[in-house]
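Budget justification note: compute hours in this period were largely spent on complex prediction jobs such as the one shown. Inputs:
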Amino acid sequence: QSALTQPPSASGSPGQSVTISCTGTSSDVGGYNYVSWYQQHSGKAPKLMIYEVNKRPSGVPDRFSASKSGNTASLTVSGLQAEDEADYYCSSFAGTNNFVFGTGTKVTVL
Amino acid sequence: EVQLVESGGGLVQPGGSLRLSCAASGFTFSSHWMHWVRQGPGKGLEWVSRIKSDGSSANHADSVKGRFTISRDNVKNTLYLQMNSLRAEDTAVYFCARSGYSSGWYYFDYWGQGTLVTVSS
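Corresponding output:
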């Protein structure tokens, strides 16, 4: 199972928006509405930000939103804040009891 | 408060074995599917294994199939990963993660801090 493709980096100034893409295939992202997104600060454990394509767990700011079209999912962080600087990973159920993660995107707040 | 605390990592020679543990608290452990996810040094996340809430079913990534075995003890509220025939490419921080449930058990809603496994001679 190949990793989902994410851009290595993305950046924006405070208050701006940044969108991260996550491209898979019809066997994972395109085949199921089970895409989730995780934020990982350096040296820390990942944190769930989005599940089932566009659902936000309680406690996650509504500045974080997500969607999916075909084989590509996207995460948008609006109103960028300094604490949003982190690595972001998408994940998808990939059928036959497998899961796959994205390659990761480092978000920098300029 | 949900807590997941991994232990058992360390330095092991290629071909050796190690057993990781993950002690869970703050939730009904026996009600949740559980996973192991690893992250190589400077690399991304890689799903390793998952086990059903009652332990009756388990799955492993192709990269570890036949070498790693996930298991659980719902009395001790502990998740395990038995790792055999270890290779250099298994070097990673190993996280245990709880599966959250919405329309299925398809995301990871809580993570431990991880335990480092280094495979080297």
